[in-house]
Sequence to fold (228 residues):
Amino acid sequence: MTTKRAVVLVSGGLDSATTLAIAREQGFECYALSFDYGQRHRCELVASDAVAESLGAAEHRTFTLDLRQFGGSALTDDAIAVPESGGEGIPVTYVPARNTVFLSLALAWAEVLGAQDIFIGVNAVDYSGYPDCRPEFIAAFERMANLATKAAVEGHPMRIHAPLIELSKAEIIQSGTRLGVDYAQTVSCYNPTPEGLACGRCDSCRLRAEGFAAAGLPDPTRYQGKPE
Fold:
C-alpha cells in the first residue's frame, strides 16, 4: 500500500494543531512545516515543535524568512501595537500575503516529497477577518497550484485542504479534543510574554477563550490575567 504524504502548516496555534490531528486521522503521513518569519510572538515556534512531536509528524521543518523587512503588521513591526479590542475592517494583525507565501513554500516541499496534499488551518467563521482565510482564496490557490507545478502538469494534481474553514471555534476544539490534541501545548495569543503566557486581551485570546467556553471544556491556556 502506498503511503499518502501531506504537508501540514503548523504554527503552534490551536487551529493548526487540530488540522495536523485531522490529517493524521485521515491516514496521511504528515510533514509539518512551520515558519520563523520574524513574528513578534516567538514562543509559537517552541509550541510548533511540541505539537508536531506529540501528534506524530514524520518530519518537522521550520523555514526561516524575514517578513520584518516589509513590516506592515502588528506581528512583524514593533512600531505597530497589537490591538486589545476589535475594530472595523481588516485588523492590523493581518500579515500581508502571509498565507500566500506559506502555501507557496509548502507547495514546493510537497513536490519534492511527492505529496499531493497540503493542509492549512484557516477558518472563515470565528476569525479576525483576514482575506487569506476565506474559501475563495483556498480554491484560487489550488487552481494556481495545478497550473504552476510539474507534478500537476504530469497528472498528479495538488489538493489544498482547509478542514476547519467552516467550523466554529467551539467545533474546532471539540474535534481536536476527540483526536487527542493537547491544547495546553498551543499558543494563540498575538502578544504573549517570552514565556508564552497569553495576554488575555487580544482578539485571538478572546476567540480562544470563547471557543472553550462554548465547547463546554476547560481552557488550559496559561494567561497573564483573566481573559477580558
